[in-house]
Every structure is written in structure tokens, then in C-alpha cells.
Design a protein that fits this description.
single chain; about 40% helix; Nucleotidyltransferase, domain 5; 2 domains; 8 helices; 4-stranded mixed sheet; globular; 9 strands; alpha/beta; binds adenosine-5'-diphosphate
């Protein structure tokens, strides 16, 4: 059996997806990007292949994507994360919805991507200038509130009353605002809920810039946060599809592109 690897080297995490010739996901791995992207990506790929009992030589095509993609020299191809995200999202959601709008929140940026009926990217906007509205901001909030990142979702639903407003547009000032709210005896839960709504409002603005279309897919690590999903759904007044593994959509898309490129090369070599 031939296998295809998609390696998404993000600012925060390295995500690897392995697919087979049917473009079905056979395994994935998420590890911290750290400071040595290439070394950690290689180690993570080897560990995943060993877990899956797949021989490295059976991985016949590798596509790298994401922030650090150009550093992964062993890849057969490297591709923009926008294209890989779009292909991965359509494939991951194919049994549930026809994806036309993608919201991606990563460690250091957030994006809204618009697709046409055939799945082609027609427009995208990215916020990579400011940490507010990114995973890093959520990490900093969790740290200031002394809770784990994976507790934010649950705490959101324990908030009481109207969500607090976090008005600062800069992540650094927003952090000071959060500390001020703690000083004014607001509960951690109410602050978490306020943070989620402040991010949701930013995301909805991004989505409106590309044009909101039904078939909304949300991915990236922060899509694991059910409180944030709830806030975005309320702000956008629509249901959003969250895949089973929100962090690996882009690497999954890259592995599908790898499968298609390989098949194309084989076909044209005959
Ligand atoms: P990148 O592609 O830029 O490396 P990711 O899509 O991997 O980013 O997202 C990283 C962010 O996801 C982290 O900064 C963190 O805020 C968030 N995250 C990671 N794991 C969880 C979790 N279990 N629950 C909620 N948020 C999470």
C-alpha cells in the first residue's frame, strides 16, 4: 500500500496526517513546533510512522504546508496553507455539509476563507498583525486566569449574566483589562466568556470581509474550545461545523494533494 504524508508546520504546533490511496486518513500526530521546526517535524513523522507500523519507503509523496513549510526540504512539494485548508475542510466535512466558508484560528493568526461551489478558494483575509483573536491570546488569558487552555470551553458555560466586554483591540492591553476585571472581583467564568465574545466579534468581522456563505467550517486548535464555538455561532447567527480533529484539517488537505500529485505523475509517466 502507498501512503501520503501532509506536514503542517504551524507557529505553535506541527500537525502530520497520513492518508492512503483512497485519501482516507489512517493516522495523525500533533506536537509542539518548538524552535527547531525541521528536526521536530522529522522526529514527529518518524514516531507517527512507527505507531502506525508503516515503513518510511511506503510513504511515496510528502507535501509540506504552513508557516515553516519551506524548512522541510524532504517534501516532494510545498503548498500554501490556504489551499491545503480548503481541500482538507471539504474532505473532512463531505458527509455533513458543503463547505463554503472556513474560519481558521491558529496560534499566531486567524483567517476567513471563502470557497466557490467547486471548492476553489475565491477570497481570503488574514489577521496576523495582532495577537488578539488568535490562539496565543487565548493561551495568555488562560495563563492569567490560572487555568489550562482546555478548561476554557467548560468555564464559558458556567458564566452568569451578560458576557463581560473586553474592549481593548490590542492583546497586550486586553490582558491588562482582564487583570483589572479580576481585581474588580469578576469571576474567572465571566471573564472567559467575555474573552470568547471579544474574539468571536473579531472573527465575524473577518468572515464578513470575505462574504458569509452557508456551510461554515471552523478549524485550528481554538476550534476545540466549545465556549468559543458557542460565542461565534451566537455572533454569526448560524450553526458551524467542527471536524473531529480540528487541528489537522490543513495537514489532511496537504496529504490529499500529495495523493493527487502522485497519481497524476504515475498516470503521465505511462
Ligand atoms: P498553528 O497552526 O498556528 O500552530 P494551531 O491550529 O495548532 O496553530 O492552534 C494552536 C492554538 O490552539 C493554541 O495556541 C491554543 O490556544 C489552542 N489549543 C490547543 N489545544 C487546545 C485545546 N485542547 N483546547 C482549546 N484550545 C486549544
Amino acid at each position: 500500500m502507498n501512503y501520503f504524508a501532509g506536514i503542517d508546520i504551524g507557529s505553535t504546533a506541527i500537525k502530520i496526517a497520513i492518508t492512503d490511496e483512497n485519501k482516507s486518513l489512517v493516522g495523525h500526530k500533533i506536537s509542539a513546533s518548538g524552535s527547531m521546526f525541521y528536526k521536530y517535524a522529522q522526529e514527529s513523522l518518524e514516531a507517527l510512522l512507527s505507531e502506525l507500523n508503516i515503513d518510511k519507503k511506503d510513504v511515496v509523496y510528502t507535501v509540506a504546508t504552513g508557516y515553516g513549510r519551506k524548512l522541510f526540504k524532504e517534501a516532494d512539494e510545498n503548498i500554501s496553507e490556504i489551499t491545503a485548508n480548503a481541500i482538507g475542510a471539504r474532505a473532512a466535512a463531505k458527509e455533513y455539509c458543503d463547505v463554503k466558508t472556513i474560519i481558521n484560528i491558529g496560534g499566531q493568526d486567524s483567517k476567513a476563507i471563502s470557497l466557490d461551489d467547486d471548492g476553489n478558494v475565491t477570497n481570503f483575509v488574514m489577521n496576523d498583525r495582532c495577537a488578539a483573536g488568535t490562539g496565543k491570546f487565548l493561551d495568555a488569558c488562560a495563563m492569567n486566569l490560572e487555568i489550562n487552555i482546555d478548561e476554557l470551553g467548560e468555564r464559558h458555560f458556567q458564566a452568569t449574566g451578560t458576557p463581560l466586554s473586553i474592549n481593548s483591540t490590542c492583546a497586550v492591553f486586553a490582558e491588562s483589562e482582564i487583570i483589572g476585571l479580576l481585581g474588580n472581583n469578576h469571576s474567572v467564568e465571566d471573564i472567559v466568556c467575555g474573552v470568547h465574545y471579544s474574539i468571536a466579534k473579531r472573527i465575524v468581522k473577518l468572515v464578513k470581509r470575505v462574504g458569509l456563505k452557508e456551510g461554515i467550517y471552523f478549524d485550528g486548535g481554538p476550534a476545540l474550545n466549545k465556549g468559543l464555538v458557542h460565542a461565534i455561532e451566537n455572533e454569526i447567527s448560524r450553526k458551524i461545523f467542527i471536524p473531529q480533529y480540528p487541528q489537522i484539517t490543513t495537514s489532511y488537505g496537504a496529504s490529499i494533494i500529495g495523493c493527487e500529485s502522485y497519481m497524476y505523475q504515475i498516470k503521465n509517466a505511462i
